[in-house]
Amino acid sequence: MTDSPSPSPSFSAYDSPAELPHPNVLGSHSYPPGISPTVSRHWRDVFWLLIFMAHLTVVGFALGVFGLNRFKKKDRLNIDKYTMGFLENKDGLTEDYWPVYSIAAGVGAALGWTWLLLLGSRANQMMKFAVHLLTTYLAVVSVLCFWIKQFFWGVAFAIGAALQFLYVISIIDRLPFTMLVLQGAAKMVQNLPEVTRVASMFMLVMLLWLALWSFGAGGVVALSIGDGGRWWLLVVLSISLFWTGAVLCNVVHVIVSGMVFLVLIHGGREAASMPHKPLMNSLRYSMTTSFGSICYGSLFTAAIRTLRWKIRGLRSKIGKNECLLCCVDFLFHLVEFLVRWFNKYAYVQIAVYGKNFNHSAKDAWELFQSTGVESLIAYDCSGAVLLMGALLGGLIAGTCAAIWTWIKHPERVVMVGSTAMLMGMILVGLTVVVVESAVTSIYICYAEDPSLINRWDAVFFTQISEKLHQRLQHRSLRPRELLRRRTDEETPEAVLT
Predict the structure, then answer these.
(1) Model confidence at 203, in pLDDT bands (50, 70, 90)?
(2) Contact 442, 453 (CB under 8 A)
(3) Is 401 in contact with 100 (CB distance < 8 Å)?
(4) Helices (H), 27-90
(5) Helix segments in 299-381, DSSP class H
């Protein structure tokens, strides 16, 4: 569904409070000088809201059918007559695999809640731990796969470990600044204990959906069809689970972003101008008028962001191969165009201004490019570091489920372990997203009005301002350096000619 563009927010440090409009932003009635958002709280991206709800209905019905068909009785719903043409027919029951998935859900939830408990005191150490441990853990899983004679997965995890190691080496000089930003975001979240309660609440909602999903997935693994048919069904169910998990994560993202933005523009959660019940209003908007935009953005943002990280790393390592550089540059510009319309900073605009997703993403990216903050964001690796934490949690949950499956049903280790890993990653992701939301809100506020960050934490403001100045200098000098190198290469050829 195409929505008409929302009016762009206006920001002027010279507006007096009497001249500022008083829209209802997350339940607020007035804003301090310097921030004057124009808000239209209409239903946005309704088409994608309907698609998501229809998807939940269809998938939920299919999960119930698959799970019941093999629950305590083989072929309870007489589905086997439709699978007579498949090879490798084997019998099993849903309850053979459902408890294994519950182990993965329990481990993922325990890791997630541990993260929330240690968010204030040990967040920085936990993120460093995740960055350095993930490579080792991928290598260990690779060895385990070779040990149980799963050579394809052994090679896949070994390649993953190598790529992770190379990626960490390539960003090692950027990690100090990344940890500085994450530390500032964790400090902000620590002062907002209600947002961790929101994350816990949505983790419970996800666990309820996982109870149904794992019931259906257990029924699929027990179906009397060949492994090919099982894998296709599990892939479809996993894509559905990924979208559902991304939607819940981004609902938390919108709620936390709205809270952090309000705290920054009002100068603290105890300020007299702080609106009444901002958390409840943010929750209400994210689950009603803005829910369609969240469903829409959740389909694309994660994939495009990951692709952007990989292409940036590849682009920086290409030497003088003009043909390869041309191809990578084409992909880079294509992904940069997609990032303009699909980026995680859109969720802050959705939370505060109530726009649809595409306009929110476009406005956020244009704001960053016009202020130069985009160069700072490109240097920051906080999203990748938090993703590593979620991946590590998913790998731990998947390993626990795979070990139990290897004891009970060794022929289904990879099938159950890989899907259980996705469950654990989503549960941990629901907790790390609170820090990522704070990071995005800090960047949005810094781009719109740097004095907001200075008022919140002067030391942090000085550090990121210095880094922004360095990045802008580096960006301005880079074309000159490339031109000088090209001139130096062409001069000997001209002399020979």
Answers:
(1) very high
(2) yes
(3) yes
(4) 46-69
(5) 301-317, 322-341, 346-353, 357-371, 373-379
pTM of the model: 0.81
Nearest to 311 by CA among 178, 170, 138: 170
DSSP annotation of 20: S
Structure confidence at residue 13 as a pLDDT band (50, 70, 90): very low
Q: What is the pLDDT of residues 137-186, one digit of tens each?
A: 999 999 988 988 888 889 999 999 998 898 888 888 888 899 999 989 98
Q: Which residues contact 247 (CB under 8 A, 6 or more apart)?
A: 52, 294, 295, 298
* Structure-block tokens of residue 471: 């990045």
Are 42 and 25 a contacting pair, CB within 8 Å?
Answer: no
Cα–Cα distances (Å) from 423 to 329, 396, 441, 460, in that order, read 35, 11, 27, 36
Burial of 457 (0-12, 13-18, 19+ CB in 10 A): middle
Residue 162 to residue 26: CA distance in whole angstroms: 45
CA distance 175 to 180: 8
CA distance 90 to 82: 15
Question: 89 with 83: CB under 8 angstroms?
Answer: yes
Q: How far apart are CA 61 and CA 24, in angstroms?
A: 39
Q: What is the pLDDT of residues 430-486, one digit of tens each?
A: 999 999 999 999 999 999 889 999 999 999 999 999 998 888 887 776 555 555 555
